[in-house]
Amino acid sequence: MSARKYRLQVEGMTCIACERHVETALNSIGAKDVDVNFRSGEAVFELPEHIGIEKVKEAVNKAHYKAGEAEAIHPQDEGNDDYDFIIIGSGGAAFSAAIKAVEYGAKVAMIERGTIGGTCVNVGCIPSKTLLRSAEIYYFAKNNPFLGLNTSAGPVDWKKLMEQKDELVKELRQQKYVDLIDEYGFELIQGEAKFVNEKTVEVNGNKITAKRFLIATGASPLIPDIPGLKDVNYLTSTSLLELKELPKRLAVIGSGYIGLELGQLFHHLGVEVTLMQRSPKILKEYDPEISEAVEKALTEQGIHVIAGAAFERVEQNGDIIQIHVTVHGEKKIIEAEQLLVATGRKPNTEALNLQAANVEVGSRGEVIVDDYLRTTNPRIYAAGDVTMGPQFVYVAAYQGGIAADNAIGGLEKKVNLDIVPAVTFTNPAIATVGLTEKQAKERGYEVRTSVLPLDAVPKALVNRETTGVFKLVADAKTFKVLGVHLVAENAGDVIYAAALAVKFGLTVEDLRECLAPYLTMAEGLKLVALTFDKDVKKLSCCAG
Q1: What is the four-CA torsion angle of 105, 109, 110, 114, rounded to 10 degrees?
Q2: Among this protein's residues, is 514 annotated catalytic?
Q3: Which N-terminal stretch is annotated as signal sequence (predicted)?
Q4: What letter does residue 214 receive in the DSSP assignment?
Q5: Residue 73: is its pLDDT beyond 90?
Q6: Do 52 and 43 contact (CB within 8 A), yes or no?
Q7: Which entry of 1, 6, 13, 514 is annotated as an active-site residue?
Q8: What is the 3-state secondary structure (H, E, C) of 364-376?
Q9: What pTM does this model have?
Q10: Which residue from 137, 232, 259, 451 could staple onto 342, CB 3.0 to 4.6 Å apart?
């Protein structure tokens, strides 16, 4: 039976669920190869000659949409898309998007070339933080600050620590990722995806089509171009957490949050650690009071910090790695059994063949997106670390949900990353939200700041851990809180309250008037607000 192909304008569609409703209506009257697009407001389909176009319009109208003009087009061989939504990657952004898309009624496939779960659960947040906690306990057993407590710690059984870490990773990967695939009913395809054209990827030799795509392939360690580095057995944040035994000495190139956390982790377990960096101070993007407090804490603990280093070359000399550096004109050689390279991350885009899909990337290979997470191909979205935004799993999950809302739900949600709390899980921890003093001035604010040393916070005094600081950045005219930054125990727990203050425009006076529980680190928020015009060291306990 011969058939003709038509394009029909359809009004009233707002999301991918509408597409499916219209597709069902057309299939019910005998239409074939139906392709509906709510964004363009049209349906393309083949119609047997014995079925008139008026019957098609009637079916669309009965489905509670409005059929418009129809035009006959030349028949094509292409069929329906295999999926409504294909997600490349399986981390935080990917799963957030998949769950949201399924809730909209979409047919979803997720493509993963490696281990399900992405960076956070497998080689990032989960394994590093559980090991950080174990290292803290070990360190404090050997270095407790209380007279009369004779604590000690025996040798570290690294193998058992690693086994316990691996068990936790396996458990959470199963519960929070693998089990959700069947729970929500989307399909997992194991293999590497490569774009063939704007709506087709190839996986394991098979071509798969979709109406929409999400690129959520994450990022991986960036290796700097230092002479000799590629010829030595250096470690990354991934391979460091798979070491079979602890080294005696660890050198770290880079002192961002990854270098600081992992360097201190190994130091707390008894390894001699040297942190090296090119910039003249650690955490160069932070306010100076923060970076100075962190460097002081690390130095007090016995970690060697070398700032302003120019890396000349790296050499392997037997079991020893030698890092040749120049610091303030003086040549030095740093020796260690292991070398961690922690100089940032790069987006995982090389294997995607994005040019075939007309998706543009930036200078670092990152996928370029607009405020709605659309790439330069309106069919394709991107979310998470592959866009090189803030490298946090909670940001990736937030973006993944918005990408699904826009790509599948038909919404026009903009990403808002103005208020992103950040935590580095060192001891003391580092937490920040909002604008630094420098950023606030660059944006034209007249700024007032308040700085409170940690020895003015009662909780720090009773804990006998007083190296740290609270800093509050405010608008000098309105006293609206613009930023909060701190170095303290439990800083990560405190920063959520600070994030609410910044997000909802609270003032310094609001913080002063809010009751703060005594002997909590969060009390430091109130005290740093009081410090604008009072010397809190001259106040009685709990006095405001």
Answers
A1: 160
A2: no
A3: none
A4: E
A5: no
A6: no
A7: 13
A8: CCCECCCCCCECC
A9: 0.86
A10: 259
Query: Would you state the structure tokens that stand for residue 175, as one six-digit string?
Result: 């519960």
**Number of other residues whose CB lies within 10 A of the CB of residue 506:** 19
Active site residue 65: yes
Look at residue 80 and tell me whether its pLDDT is greater than 80.
Answer: no
All structural domains of the chain with their residue ranges = 3-73, 83-220+346-407, 229-342, 422-538
Helix (H) or strand (E) holding 34: strand 32-37
The CATH number of 229-342, from 3.40.50.1380, 3.40.50.1360, 1.10.3660.10, 3.50.50.60, is: 3.50.50.60
Is 542 one of the annotated active-site residues of the chain? yes
254 is in an annotated binding site: yes
99 is annotated as contributing to ligand binding:
no
Could you tell me how far CA 491 lies from the centroid of its own chain?
Answer: 19
Q: How many residues does the chain have?
A: 544
Q: Is 231 annotated as a binding residue?
A: no
**Residues 432, 485: Cα–Cα separation, whole Å:** 4
Whether residue 434 is annotated as binding a ligand: the answer is: no
pLDDT band at 536 (very low <50, low <70, confident <90, very high): confident
**Count of beta carbons in the 10 Å neighbourhood of residue 359:** 23
Query: Known binder of ligand: residue 302?
Result: no
DSSP 64: T
Catalytic member of 120, 276, 388, 521: 120
Q: CA-to-CA distance for 435 and 493, rounded, in angstroms?
A: 19
Q: Which entry of 6, 18, 276, 445 is annotated as an active-site residue?
A: 18
What are the start-end ranges of the E strands in 113-163? Answer: none
Q: Under CATH, which architecture does the 422-538 domain have?
A: 2-Layer Sandwich (3.30)
CA proximity to 9, closest of 32, 27, 48, 36: 36
**Is 3-73 CATH 3.90.199.10?**
no
Assess whether 18 carries a catalytic annotation: yes
The one-letter code for the residue type at 459 is: K
DSSP 8-state symbol, 540? P
CATH of domain 83-220+346-407: 3.50.50.60
Q: Is 230 annotated as a binding residue?
A: no
Distance in angstroms (rounded) separating the CA atoms of residues 341 and 79: 49
Q: Which of 6, 65, 286, 398 is catalytic?
A: 65
Rounded Cα distance, 209 and 499, in Å: 42
Of 124, 116, 391, residue with least CA distance to 237: 124
